[in-house]
Structure formats: structure tokens, C-alpha cells
Amino acid sequence: MQTDILVVGGGLGGVAAALGALRAGRSVIMSEEYDWIGGQLTSQAVPPDEHSWVEHFGVTRSYRQLRNGIRQYYRDHFPLTEASRAWGDLNPGAGWVSRVCAEPRVGLAVLEAMLMPYRGGGKLKVLQPYRPVAADVEGDSVRTVTLRHRDTEAEITVSATYVVDATELGDLLPLTRTEYAIGFESRSDTDEPNAPEHAQPENVQAVSICFAIDHVDGDQTIDKPENYDFWRSYEPSFWGGPLLGFKAPHPRTLETTTRSFTPNPDDDPLLVDADQRKGGGDENLWTFRRIAARRNFVPGAYQSDICLVNWPMIDYMEGSILDVSEEKKARHLRAAAELSYCVFYWLQTEAPRVDGGQGFKGLRLRGDITGTEHGLAMAPYIRESRRIKPVTRIVEQDLSYAVRGEKGAVNYRDSIGVGMYRIDLHPSTGGDNYIDVPSCPFEIPLGALLPQRVKNLLPAGKNIGTTHITNGCYRLHPVEWNVGEVAGMLAAHCLNKGLTPHQVQENDVHLANFQSQISREGIEIRWPDVHAY
């Protein structure tokens, strides 16, 4: 097969890259290894992690269309109460982590709708479920990528002028021999205040396999997982208690704190204030990432709230899945899934209740919500990827509030987007505790999307030129979307203008023209006067 632009990976960055290229009139083939496009929003089942000004500024126009589309889908198709239907900033799940906590199938429906006109018009072909297994490289350019069907093992080789790596783990980087980094860089390399003395390539953020639950009448208890006793006694040195428990380090203070868990509290969803400046919101684990608040819907429509479990206790820290054998990667992912089942079984049988009892037997896995028969999310939640060695590497001192203070983050000459989130690193495979420190509202430099050597490969997700530390704030939903959208637009721009991405970044006139173009398409490249939190 042949196309102008090949997008490998159909997560948020991949979908945004496809849209950016398609709007510019280019043909696109997009592949995705799972049954759902949408990545962390859908197959990984994680509600969007966003900054506090998201309703007003700081995201791209098309990302705002996605958010508004999710809300409108609920208004069009769900039995909302009159008050919830009239709620301008409708939060279907009334979760504290995000202003748009929603069921993953709704995000999937909206993403599919955004792509639909291009499928019908023949400009976009989506290959599912396919993953990359080989690439043909000539000099500093990628010529073809070979994709293999997950179930049949049939292979398709695609040639393209530009290739966008939107995979969750940066899978094209080793296949194309593009230089990249993994794990924790050393302080001598990056000068970052929180970096270790020596590089730790195997030290990456924990993988988590999320799941959705509700609480209904009757005994829903699953069979005891095979290795439950191992995980029941598992206790990281810095945790303050067993991993399977409501005690865990507070991400910002590292003090041991105890979370609460109260299924189906009789709270008013319209009073939930999902503002991350006021705290993480995870004190009550049920409402933290709730994706369906039953009181948003007419009585009887939902038997229970639906809670998305992406909590500290499901973080799998026993090993990295980057640059290991396929067998070892599969073994780690099986163990991560087993940990999630063990957490669920512990909740059903041993979790302390406020009435003094143990266990919530009415908890039920909602695999129908996550699109699986096994009951967990379709795909693992990936926080950290391989990262290109870029023209511009984003380091902690570019945006850390402790370093930059009221000056704010570095202004990049070649900014192609903005983002904001705390530097939020989960416990890692190297035995590190949380690193969760204030960040300044930051920009995304075009140079972070350009490999130093390879000319026609562009990253579109967590594989941009961050470090282990700065990945902690560049990895979230709206930034991934912005990165992907610009990668697709850049590839199309270069095809239309006869330029290379490096020429656009290096030349002031070419750069200004591209920045003007993306600004017209609704990409914000500078922040208004806002402050760190």
C-alpha cells in the first residue's frame, strides 16, 4: 500500500495526526493494534488529565471539539436529568480528576465521528488490529513500514513520504534505527535537579491496567487470583504499608495517607469541582475517576455509579516493558493484569468498610464498559515511552516552578503548542517514589518533534524529546493531542511546500509561516498571563 502520510498508532496522538494531515488535503493510512482507536482515553480507559483553564484556553481547537463532542453525545443519547442536561460544563461522571469524566465508548464514538468524513471520502484508511514489525530504511529516511495483523499474522507493507510514530511505546524508533533514549537520564547529562547521579535506562514509570467497577446487590465475588497471596503481602519500601490497601504515599508530600472508599455516595454531581489547583482529588477513590454518576441520569437509568480504577495500588513496578524480549514484555503485562485482579478481589473480600466490616461483595467488574470479556481495560495504561534524541530536548529546568519561579517556563522560538500539568511521575521500576512537583504553564518546541538525524519520521505522543522527568507533564491527553495534530500538519505542510521538517524549524521565515498556519487552525502557541500551581 502507498500513502502520503503513514500514522502508526491510533491513540489520541495518532488520531490527531491523521486529522491534521487530512485537513490539509493529504492521504493517510493509520494503523492501530487494538480494537478501539483513542489510546489512553478509550482502550486504556483513563479520563483526560487536564489543566485548570481547559474550559477557556490552553488546548487546540480540535481537542476542544472532542471534549464538546463527548458532552453533546450525552445530551443527544443519554437520559440526563434536566439539571445535568443544562449544565454547560457537563461532567458525566462527576469525577474529581477531570471536568470531562466519561465512559470510554463515548470518547470512541466521538473520535470515530471526527474521522468518518475522511473515511467516506477515501482519504483515510484505518488498519486494525495491526502493529508494526519491520521497517525499510534508506540513509536517513524511512521508506516502508511492515504491519502485522494481531490475529491472522497477515502482513501489509506501507510506503509513505512521511511516517508518524504514534505508538504508545515508540515502537518505530528501534525498527527504523532512530536514535532514542529510555528510562532516567543522569544529572551530568541533563543538569536536572531531580535526576540521579547515574543514568538508569531500565527505570521507567509503572504500567497500570485499569478497570471499571460498579456496586450492585448480591455477591459478585470473583475466584481468588492464583498469586493473590504474593500481591497481598507485597510492600514497596516507601509505601507505608501493603500495596493492597488504602494507605499510600501522598504524591505531593510523600507522607503516608489513607484514602477512603465509599461506593455510591449520595453526592450532587453538579457540585464537583475538578480543579487540580485545589489538590489531586483522590482522597475518595470512588469519586476520583468516576466515569458515570448515577445522579446525572434520570432515576433508574443507572443501578450504580461507575468507577474507573486507576489508583496507586494497581501501579506495576516489577519491571520495564521497554527494550525487553517479547516473552518478558508479555510476562510483565500478565503480572500487571494479575495485580489488577488481585486489587479487585481485595476490594471485594478484605477492604475495610466504615461500618467496621470487610469487603464489598457487590462490586462488579464492568468489562462491557471497557470493551473486554476479561473485565479489565483493553490496553495497558502507558505513562512512559521510548523518546527520540531530538533537535531540542525539554529538560526540568525549562519549566519547573522551583527553578523558573514567576518568570514562567522557557519561551521557545519554535513553539507549536502549549500544555500544563504538574511534573507527575508515578512510582517506577527502579524503586523510586512519586516525583510530583509544580510546573509552569509550558510550550511545546518544534525541535522536540524532530529526530536529530532521521528526516521523515515524526513522533506523535510520549516519544517526543522530553526526559524521564519532563515526560511527567508532557504525557497527558491534551498535550499528546497537540503534539500529534502538529506532527500531521507538519508532514502535510512539508509535502505541500517542498520543505523538510528540519528546514521549517531552522529557517525563521519558514517557521513563522508554519506557526501562522497552525494558529489559523486553532493551535495556541503562547500562554496568556497564568501562573504555576
TrEMBL record:
Protein name as annotated: FAD-dependent oxidoreductase
Keyword terms, alphabetized: Plasmid
Pfam short name (any one): FAD_oxidored
Location of the region described as Disordered in the Swiss-Prot/TrEMBL record: 257-276
Species assigned in the record: Rhizobium sullae (Rhizobium hedysari)
Coiled coil, from the record: none
Gene3D superfamilies: FAD/NAD(P)-binding domain (3.50.50.60)
Keyword Isomerase: no
Family annotation (InterPro entries): FAD/NAD-bd_sf, NadB
